[in-house]
Structure formats: structure tokens, C-alpha cells
Specification:
Length: 709
């Protein structure tokens, strides 16, 4: 790989974390696939040779568990979902150059080849380990057939991951108080031989790898703690029937399959290979990408950073493959401030969105331009409406329609005039913004470059009022409208990665041939066709009544789904206790006879135990603090929360000596939606009490990054 600015002379491949072939897609999934698609399109607009590949993850216990519940073969079960994904992704203008799956012959053979290489190079060994066993079912329990307690943070965990707590990868035998997910009975640990990959030998290599890694800061910073804590070798086999057999297995390990996180990332390579074989190596050489100096970019969810920045690059290095140039980890999607819950049907499903009749580009624009790639995004239909109406309808669509309609009515197309120096300079500035955004791995700013140019176009046409110039200064009117048509074309080129369908519709409206997806940035300044037909409005406003209906439908679905499993047991008891305590609090407050306004949240604003779990509150350490110019009360803080450093704006400028804050512990609400204050983005909220903003901290030595529970 190089670390030169894109475009480089080397071919690139962009991948996205494989979807488990075991359930419907929702907007939480789509954020990553749309973001990676937009980034690939943006690379191509820069002139970078790129391929976008992915595939369905057919193996692992989630597939096996759900197939067993439905009484079907795992392969049949997974292929059904795989085929649905193949159909669904194009409906959101997500266009993979190749979409395979982990159970196909290419991935199976490549996986076995890479594992054999690891073995031959001395990076695999066999060891007896403690494996959970269900005596009643008379079988060993892999991964998600085991539930218990995380040994590191004490939260509920499954067999391979602390998914409700510290999100740490867990090896077989680490889960405490194991329970069988098959029978619900306590499991017991028994010794069993398994294969291990010597990840611990790659600590120095991985440190250097992270020093050079591009992408999002969470993907670079979060893994460093795991290296500092000491890397543990990685168990790469499981006691299952479903998966890729361990190559050359015999004796006691002959019935083991490879852990899903071995063959899943290898699908990136296999899918690239399939694409190259289809188009020919002269057009795209997969080995040049994966074994030479190609540019590899992974777009993933935040919960699988460890797999892509520790295990995967170590495997690639050991097997003689190229390392990723960048890992970009997306934040999570919440719905109305609450985490997605498939069991409670609290999600906006991909098919549901399409059934409502919305154009896919509206969701693409919302998901790619709301917050940065690594930040959590809270979806509500109202927020979706505001984004569409305020930016796509009122800014981009309004400029396209009004400028092209005026050009058609008065000149039957593009006036015969030169583009003014001012407008040419502004388009060139937008092109440079686009270029910088791609090299910063910011799909939000890719869209922002286009939207800001359209906003400039609206201001330009309003400022020059060509409708007044037509009769009085016809030459000047022609120049102004020529400028506007050029801006409209440039916006179409720049917005194509984000809204490819609407960009192509504009392209056709102005009489251009071919596809806008095949253009590069330089084409934004080429003269538009001399004539074109009357344009149509490309974006439609979303009415309040429609949003109210959508919010009502979502609320009814969630309510109809009933109580989530997470609310049973102790959580339900806690909710019940809240109800009883509320009456007592009201009675006591009423007897006091004082001001009730301060107590209203205590009386009427109770939240459920589930709602509290959705808050991600962490111990932080302030690394830097400075006042924000022009703001009387606001300060910009840099807060270390363990796996990354956050920029936070806080109203403490007049209440604290900012020079003394670095090094102080604080408490941060980490999953608050980002906001911009005085031009400074704030990614979280520092908690404080009282009018003097007394910063909350910890009494003892809680580690930075520790969750508050």
C-alpha cells in the first residue's frame, strides 16, 4: 500500500463487514454498506481504480442456532437470506462489484490455503482448553450456545464476546457461570484439544501497523489498549458441524471447524478474486491488491474493530498478504434515542422503508451526512424529514429546478456565455473540498461539498436576480444562467457518490449522455449541453402528517412486540420498584409544599431500566481545555475515554480555570448525538452538577473508559 493522497497508481478495494445470513436488514446494517458504497464511488470520482466487494457470512453459531429453530439445514437457511440480501442491496443503490458468500468454493479453498500456510510457518499450535459442555444435550457448546458473565467487566456475555459490557473478545472457557443456550441448564467445563493462532507474536508488528493505519480514530486507538494489556493467542477452531473443516484435521481435532472469524474476513480476498476472474486480470488484478501494494479499505461496525485491527492483520502478515491501508468504523444507529432491538421490533427495516415508497437516495443522504462516520446516529422520522426537506428539497433540489427551469424557458438550455471567474473558482473550491473529504475518509463531507455548492448556487441566483436582467441586461442574464447551469452540473457530479439515482436523473435532464457515475472531478467544469428539455423537480417534500403516521406505526410495532428479554428478571423487578417508589415520592413532596418544578423529572419523567442501559456513560480524563473564541461560556475539551479521545464542548469557560483541568477525571455521556456549537463539533457531554458546573468524577481509581452503571 501507499500512503499517498488518493488517487494513487495502485488499485484499491473497499470492503464492508459481512452481514450474518440469519435475518432481515435494517437501517443499522445499511449505514455501513451505504457508507462503503459512497466511499467507493467517491474514490472513482477522484480517478482511483477501485472495486467494492462483500459477501454473506454463512457460518457461525447465529446461523446454526436460527436454522435449528426453524428445523432446516444451515446451508439452506443461510442461502435463503443470502439471496434476499443480493436482491435488497441494489434497491438502495448499493452496487457491489462482487457479492459472494463464505460457504462458496472460492472462499473455502482460500481459507484452507491460508490456514495451511499459518500452520507451515509455525503460527498454529494445539492446546487442551476448557470448553463448555452441556451434559443433558451431550454436546460441547461453541460461542453463542454459551451464556454467562464476562470475567473482565462482570456484564452478561455470550461465548465469544462481552456484547453487553466491555465488548471484549472472549476465548472459549473464559465466560464465568456458563449456561447452555440449548437447555437453559448450567454448563460445565471439560478439557478439549483446540487449535490456536499465535497472535501474541505480532504485538510489535501490530503496533507499527496501527501507527500507520488510516481511517477513523476509534479504529486506530481502541486496539492499542488490547496490545498494552498483552495479546492472547487466538483459538481458531470450534466444536460444530457447520463451518469450514479445519484443513488436514485428524485424531481428536478431526471434527472441528474453523472459527467464523477466520473464514469471514478471508471472504474479502475471495470476493475480490472472483471479481478479477470475471473481468480479467488486465482490468483488475486481485493479487496486486492483496499481495503487492494495493490500497485496502475496510468499512466496519464499531463492535468488530478488534477482529479487523488485531486478528485480521496478524493473519495477513503471517500468510504473506498485504495489510489494510485504512479501517473506518461506523457508529451505531439508535431509534428515538434507544438502541435497536430486533426482539421488540424497534428498527426501521430495509423492506419497510422501501414499502413506504421513499427513494433510496433520501436514506443514503441521511445516513451518510448525519454526523461523522464513527459517531452514533439517532434516527427518527422527524429528523429524517428535516434532513430531506431542509437540505435535499430546499437546497439541492430547489437550486437544480429553479436554475434549469429558467434556463429552459429563456434559452431552451445552456446560454451561450462563458463561466465567470467567481463561479469557476467556487466550483474548484468544492472539488478540493471533495478531494480532502475522501482522503479524510469522511463521506459526510463528500456530501457536504455538494450541498454547500448548491447553497452557494441558490445565493448566487438570488443575488444576481436574472429574471430582472433578461430585459434590461440580456448579456448579463445569459452569463448568470450559464453560471447556474454549470453549478447545477457540478453539484450532480459531486453528489453522485451519496445520491447516485438523483444525480443520474439530473444528468439526463440537462441532456448529458452516459452515466454520471463514470465521470471524474474534472468533468464538473466541462460545458453542459447547449439544449435540454423542461426539467422536473427531483425531490419531494415530506409532509408533517406523513411523519406523524410513520412515528405512530413504529410506536405501535414496538408496543405490540411486548417486553424485551432484557427487561425480564431483575430488570423487571427494578421497573416494578420504580413504580412503587414513585407514589411515595409524590406524597412526600406534596407534604413539603415547596417549589415542585425541580422535582417534575422525578415524578413524571421516570425511565425504564432498559432506557438507562441505553446510556453509555464513561469515566474520562481531560487531556486539553481551551476557551472557544467568541463564546462567553463555552470551552473545547479533549477527553480520553479509553479507546479514543473525544472533542467535547462544555459551558464551563467562566466557572473553571481551564489551565488546571488537563489530567482531571470526569464523567462523560458518550452516546449523545453530536452537535455543533460556535462552529465546533461536540461529541459527547461532560456531566456536571449545580450552577457552578461542579464536574462529576470518581471517588477511587476507576480506569479511564470504565462504564458507569
Amino acid at each position: 500500500m501507499s500512503h499517498d493522497d488518493y488517487p494513487t497508481d495502485e488499485p484499491a478495494v473497499v470492503t464492508c463487514g459481512l452481514p450474518y445470513a440469519n435475518g432481515d436488514l435494517h437501517i443499522g446494517h445499511l449505514r455501513g454498506y451505504i457508507g462503503a458504497d459512497a466511499f467507493t464511488r467517491a474514490l472513482r470520482t477522484l480517478g482511483q481504480q477501485s472495486a467494492y466487494v462483500c459477501g454473506s457470512d454463512m457460518h457461525g453459531t447465529p446461523v446454526a442456532v436460527n436454522a435449528e429453530k426453524e428445523g432446516v439445514d444451515p446451508e439452506e437457511f443461510a442461502l435463503g437470506w443470502h439471496e434476499q440480501y443480493e436482491e435488497t442491496f441494489p434497491r438502495f443503490n448499493v452496487e457491489f462489484d462482487n457479492y459472494g458468500h463464505t460457504h462458496d468454493e472460492t472462499n473455502t479453498e482460500l481459507t484452507r490455503e491460508i490456514v495451511r500456510t499459518l500452520d507451515e510457518e509455525g503460527y498454529i499450535y494445539e492446546k487442551e482448553i476448557q470448553v463448555a459442555y452441556d451434559p443433558e444435550a451431550d454436546q460441547y457448546l461453541p460461542d453463542r450456545y454459551v451464556e454467562g458473565t464476562c470475567p473482565y467487566c462482570g456484564e452478561k456475555a455470550r461465548g465469544d464476546e462481552c456484547d453487553e459490557g466491555c465488548q471484549r473478545h472472549l476465548e472459549p472457557g473464559e465466560v464465568e457461570n456458563p449456561t447452555s443456550a440449548i437447555t437453559g441448564n448450567p454448563a460445565e467445563y471439560r478439557e478439549r484439544p483446540h487449535k490456536f493462532f499465535r497472535v501474541s507474536e505480532f504485538a510489535d508488528y501490530l503496533t507499527d501497523f496501527l501507527d500507520q493505519l488510516e481511517g477513523t480514530s476509534n479504529a486506530r486507538n481502541q486496539p492499542r489498549q488490547w496490545i498494552e494489556d498483552g495479546l492472547q493467542d487466538w483459538c481458531i477452531t470450534r466444536d460444530m458441524d457447520w463451518g469450514i473443516d479445519y484443513p488436514g484435521g485428524d485424531g481428536e481435532t478431526g471434527d472441528l471447524v474453523l472459527y467464523v472469524w477466520v473464514d469471514a474476513p478471508i471472504e474479502y480476498v475471495a470476493s475480490t478474486k472472483q471479481y478479477a476472474e470475471r473481468v480479467g486480470s488486465d482490468e483488475y488484478d486481485w493479487e496486486r491488491v492483496w499481495k503487492d501494494e494495493g490500497e485496502i479499505v475496510h468499512v466496519i461496525g464499531r463492535d468488530i474493530i478488534q477482529h479487523h485491527t488485531i486478528f485480521w492483520p496478524a493473519m495477513l502478515e503471517a500468510a504473506g498478504y498485504n495489510a489494510p491501508r485504512a479501517v473506518a468504523a461506523t457508529g451505531f444507529i439508535t431509534i428515538g434515542g434507544k438502541g435497536l432491538s430486533t426482539s421488540r421490533n424497534r428498527a426501521v427495516w430495509a423492506r419497510e422503508y422501501l414499502d413506504e415508497g421513499f427513494h433510496p437516495d433520501l436514506l443514503r443522504y441521511y445516513l451518510t451526512t448525519t454526523g461523522g462516520l464513527q459517531q452514533d446516529v439517532d434516527f427518527t422520522w422527524e429528523a429524517f424529514q428535516e434532513k430531506v426537506n431542509g437540505e435535499l428539497v430546499a437546497t439541492v433540489g430547489n437550486f437544480w429546478y429553479r436554475s434549469l427551469l429558467f434556463a429552459h424557458r429563456n434559452y431552451e438550455g445552456t446560454p451561450d456565455a462563458d463561466v465567470s471567474p467567481e463561479v469557476r473558482d467556487r466550483i474548484e473550491d468544492a472539488i478540493e473540498e471533495f478531494r480532502e473529504a475522501v482522503n479524510d475518509y469522511s463521506v459526510r463531507e463528500v456530501g457536504g461539498a455538494a450541498t454547500r455548492l448548491a447553497q452557494y448556487g441558490n445565493e448566487y441566483i438570488q443575488r444576481n436576480e436574472p429574471w430582472k436582467l433578461v430585459d434590461e441586461e440580456p448579456d448579463e442574464a445569459e452569463r448568470v444562467i450559464r453560471d447556474c447551469v454549470q453549478i447545477a452540473k457540478a453539484v450532480g457530479v459531486l453528489i453522485e457518490p451519496i445520491a447516485p439515482g438523483k444525480a443520474q436523473a439530473l444528468w439526463e435532464q440537462i441532456g448529458e449522455d452516459g452515466g454520471v457515475r463514470d465521470l471524474t472531478l474534472e468533468d464538473a467544469l466541462d460545458a453542459p449541453p447547449r439544449s435540454f428539455d423542461r426539467p422536473e423537480e427531483l425531490f419531494e417534500k415530506i409532509d408533517d402528517e406523513r411523519v406523524e403516521e410513520l412515528e405512530r406505526k413504529l410506536a405501535e410495532r414496538v408496543e405490540a412486540a411486548g417486553t424485551d428479554e432484557a427487561e425480564t428478571g431483575a430488570a423487571a423487578d427494578a421497573a416494578s420498584a420504580d413504580t412503587e417508589d414513585e407514589t411515595e415520592t409524590e406524597d412526600a413532596s406534596a407534604d413539603e409544599g415547596g417549589d415542585m418544578s425541580e422535582l417534575e423529572p422525578l415524578l413524571e419523567g421516570r425511565i425504564s431500566f432498559e432506557d438507562f442501559q441505553d446510556l453509555d456513560i464513561r469515566v474520562g480524563r481531560i487531556e486539553a481545555a481551551e476557551g472557544i473564541d467568541g463564546a462567553d461560556d463555552l470551552a473545547r475539551l479533549e477527553v480520553d475515554i479509553g479507546f479514543e479521545t473525544r472533542q467535547v464542548v462544555a459551558g464551563i469557560k467562566q466557572l473553571h480555570d481551564l489551565d488546571k483541568l488537563p489530567g482531571e477525571k470526569c464523567v462523560l455521556l458518550a452516546n449523545m448525538e453530536p452537535a455543533e456549537l460556535f462552529g465546533v463539533e461536540s461529541d459527547g457531554m461532560v456531566l456536571a452538577a449545580g450552577e457552578q458546573a461542579d464536574l462529576l468524577t470518581t471517588r477511587e481509581d476507576a480506569d479511564v473508559g470504565e462504564k458507569v452503571r
